[in-house]
Specification:
Layout: E1 3-7, E2 10-12, E3 18-25, E4 33-39, E5 46-51, E6 57-59, E7 67-72, E8 77-82, E9 91-99, E10 105-108, E11 112-116
Parallel strand pairs: 2-11
Antiparallel strand pairs: 1-3, 3-8, 4-5, 4-9, 5-6, 7-8, 9-10, 9-11
């Protein structure tokens, strides 16, 4: 049973920083896509950042230059460093581990709330 657990969310002032962490328990393959998504009230879930299985990294346009995704394969951790936070970054942030080639899987965490407000 694979489980993902996010931590590190909270309330931060505009311009501040937060670091989200996602721990992965259970057995997964070493070649995965590891991503952070977010969903704000009344909006669709959107991709924030992803480390692809080939190690390429992609960011959503709204977070480029401010957010950094990283991972620690040995510890099975995924991180999202968020700097210069803006009120529009407020959302529930979810980590996601998935494979599109066999064996396919798609695991999600429960989410952690990030609120950017003065």
């Amino acid at each position: 049973q694979v489980q993902l657990a996010e931590s590190g969310g909270g309330l931060v002032q505009p311009g501040g920083s937060l670091r989200l962490s996602c721990s992965v328990s259970g057995t997964i393959l070493k070649t995965n896509n590891m991503a952070w998504h977010r969903q704000a009230p009344g909006k669709q879930r959107e991709l924030v950042a992803v480390i692809l299985a080939n190690e390429d990294i992609m960011y959503g346009d709204s977070v480029k230059g401010r957010f950094t995704i990283s991972k620690d394969n040995d510890r099975k951790m995924i991180y999202l460093q968020m700097n210069n936070l803006k009120p529009e970054d407020s959302a529930v942030y979810y980590c996601n581990v998935y494979r599109k080639s066999w064996p396919t899987y798609d695991f999600w965490g429960q989410g952690t709330q990030v609120t950017v407000s003065s």
